[in-house]
Amino acid sequence: MSGRVKRVCTVTIIFLLLLALSPTGSMCESVIFKPDSYFEWSIALWRYLKGVQVGIRALKELLWEGSLRLEIITVKPLDGKFMLEYKYVMNYTHVVKSKYTAQDTSDRIQQGIGESSYATVEFSSTDYRYLLGNLKWGFNASFPVTPLLFLNSPRSGFTVWLKDFMTIQFGLVKKECGIIYSSWDIVLGTYRDVYYVEMFLPAKYLNTTENIVVEASMVEIDFTIDKEYGFVGYLRIYWEYSATESFEILARITDTKIIPHNIFYYTVASVIAAMIAIAYTYKFYRGKRRLRLVRV
Amino acid sequence: MGLGSYAARRVVTGMITLIVVMIFNWFLFRLPSIVTGSDPSWYYVYSRVAAGSFTAERMVFMLLSFKQRWRIPSLHAPIGVWLDHLIMYMINMFTFNLGEDLFLYSGRPIVEILAARIPVSVYLILPETLIAIGIGIAIGARLGARPGGKFDVIMMAVALMLYSIPTFWLQLIFKLLFTVNWTIWPAAGGLFYYGKSTSDILINALDMFFMLILPIMTLVIAGFAGWMLLMRNSLMEVMGEDYILTAKAKGLDEATILYKHAFRNAILPVVTGVILALAFVWTGAVITETIFVIPGIGYLLFQAIIQLDYPLVEATFYFIALATIFANIIADISYALLDPRVRY
Q: Which ipTM score applies to this complex?
């Protein structure tokens, strides 16, 4: 091995060691919130016509579309806790129909009144759940999962906590009412390790004060949690609102600063390009060799 | 290419086919959800629960139980979950971990259910196949040796008529005649059907034999014509070959020409059909078993479809595909063994 190669190897090993030993965040800091970061989700509300108990795509209509933007302004460590300064705003960009009245369309939904906030709150680093706000999206209900719910997924024991979070009282015992998959997803074009959760609840658990006609109606909440940063990448809430209609909220992350974008697609494109290049090179050299053999 | 490498190649091709069939089977049962956007688990709950008869909590756990038993994620699950699900499905199918059924046996392992049903299907289809093939080949050989004769004309007319009759219709007529009009056989069941098999093997065998005579009879009547036509045509083709003319010119007697020279060559295409037919010995006959209420694989499939027992239908489809692919491989290898000219 030449001296230059040895030097390069030594520098690389030292660099890797330093990287491995570098602090990854102390206990009093948050590992999931980064200062000056932001998240954006696109959100839509759909209504299933005829109150079909089995949601069929052909029988649903769009009520509104919107976007939610959350900005993390500062994250300050504070005696085993951290102080989070953030703001969010829910904008309704495309209102086709309102669930309520025309007044509601123009005021509550279109302007997003009551669905924006600027806050400074204290959280403990050992918490599993950071709720930054309650989104109601025009309903008098409290959704257990919204994009404003961040989960401390990197912390050990998270799945145990999540299972506990997903329990409902069934007779005298508490039972798990969901399934957790530890898997992966392509988020913003980038490969991410995620937890995918399917959660089922009785609709009355939404603490809604609205008139739910069907007592035995259910809610399905499907969502992904990023394993590294604990944000909700995808969310679907489907619930039977009444005997004649069901609603579905679909939210998907569309932009954030904290993860790179389109790495997966670039990789796939690069691999395809490399394969084509290798195939062409091989073909070219084989052709040259044949030509040489013919000449001989 | 030697026989060994040919056989190995066929096994590898069979494995690839099995994987493709597996993926197709997996996709088939999820296709309605993908197309309609509906979740089968919700449909499952509401197809079984009258509105308001259950509490929401109980329905939630029914839904969860469905998902866990069928091991199916929601339609909205990320791509990683679906791929993991597909890979797990394939591993489970390869290792015969077929899961549990949903309704028919309330969560019994599917492998056990299939294992209990296979012998009944074999008792029904194996004798039927062997009898139909035997009769078909015997008459077909006779017709092929002397085409255009009186017997040939009559038998061809009969065969074409039987071949055209829908089997289920023939079975319904037989059932009406023998069980309703003449009351020779009971309309359904037998000791084995009602789970009352005795410890006496002879009584069980006689009971099963008695119950299966009628369906076997109908299947043979409807099935032998096909074998007969295949054998006749194959023999007629061989009888026109040059080496048959040479044998005749040598002065060989008719029986030697027919059985030593022509029949052995003419039987080759029939052998392939026979081996393929034997695959269906394991997979049962859906319509026959349903009409005569015979608890074999076919009737199981019918019941599972009616009950929307998705895991059971999926596993039964897989089993049928597996048996067919296996029989195909055996048929190809046997063909190569019987005819040394066959080397692809």
A: 0.78
